[in-house]
Amino acid sequence: MRRRTLVRDAAGEAAVSGGGVSGLEATPAGRLDAFLASRGLSREQLMPLLDEPFGQPLLVAAAGSILQGVGNDRSDLDLIVVVEDKVSRMPLASYASSVLVDPAYFSVAEAGQWLPALRDAEWPPAAPVDLGRWGRHLEQLIYATRLAFGLPLAAREGWAGWMDSFREPWLVQRVCQWWRVESVRKQLAARWLFARRPMLAAQRQLEAVLAVLECRVAARGLHFVGPKWLAEKLGALGDREGLAVFRDTMCCPVRESEVAAYIDRCESTRLALGGDDGAGWVASLAYLPGVDAEQRDGLTIVRRGGCRSVALEQRPAALPGDGFPIWSGRVDERLPPSALALLDADLTWLSLGARGS
Question: pTM of the entire structure?
Fold first, then answer.
């Protein structure tokens, strides 16, 4: 459960603002202490202010952008809290003062899945990955990397060692693996979408390049996963080449006539940075959750939530509920017209499988 809490300083007054901590020269402990001191708090004063809605914690770890070195004066302090029993995932908000503490609660059973799911299994698996599994894997990576850069504030026996497991080299490898796959997945979507939705194709190509840059900074030690810190990580590493690529890529085309040149330039850059060409990967298209279909007047009407629909003259290879992908094949294969129409209508989920022979 995500429970956002603003805590008061020792005097019960609003703490002094400012004093964000960043930079690679500081340790996570130093960043945390400086952040708290600028607000009139210490670690000792912080812990008693943490609510215990699910019982006595087994682990409380400070995490997030402050400890990663990319936070600022407006950043909150993330906490990862592991408790014995099952917890609710419903978010609750409570505001008491100017220092925002944002705990995420996990049961032992849930947190205990992170190591075997990430360390002991390759990504992606051979079978197609649905949207739910993709989301769970991403969430596990986010919290695993937060633990890697985090600091235990309180830990029962064995839990500090469990947290140390996320500081081992395997996690960097898994994060790089995630971004390599995402780069190919986005680039493939860009190629398929270009003819009919060029502006969306440009957006997917942008995301493909950013994924390669994320892999680049992860390999150099800043492997925490988050949607908004790429420029800060490149700057912290002094990566001028990476920052130049970032700036150039973010200058998206504003006219459809500019998209082809933009995609070509970005794809050349992506490959020059070490991006995967996708050879040997197996791609699959499946329906997004909530999609249904019906036959009407010789057409197959596929729709989602009453908001998006497409009428197909040719029946797709699979309909919602059939239990297998609409299409599966090598990334260099052409999509059949019905699958391409479903992709264009935002009714599908694209996944990649492990390399075939």
Answer: 0.86
